[in-house]
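Human:
Focus on the backbone:
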Amino acid sequence: MMNEQKVTATFSWDDGHPIDIRIAQLFNKYGLSCTFYVPKFNSENLPTLNSSDLRHLSLDSFDIHSHTLNHTYLKNLPADQQAVEI
């Protein structure tokens, strides 16, 4: 009898673009999970998932985490502003 090795992989998606809803549908279809990192606002004026979308993703058992408040580059900010973003 062969020893079966279990393989673990993690998937994460950044920036909270509305296309992430489709990604979540595909992950659900194949029984996979992932983590979405979503900013509250996007300083690059790109669309982000709204609170209803995020609620839906979390109810589908996906992890939702912060990706800074405004999707800014932290290394360009003073420490006090970095703390606000994080």
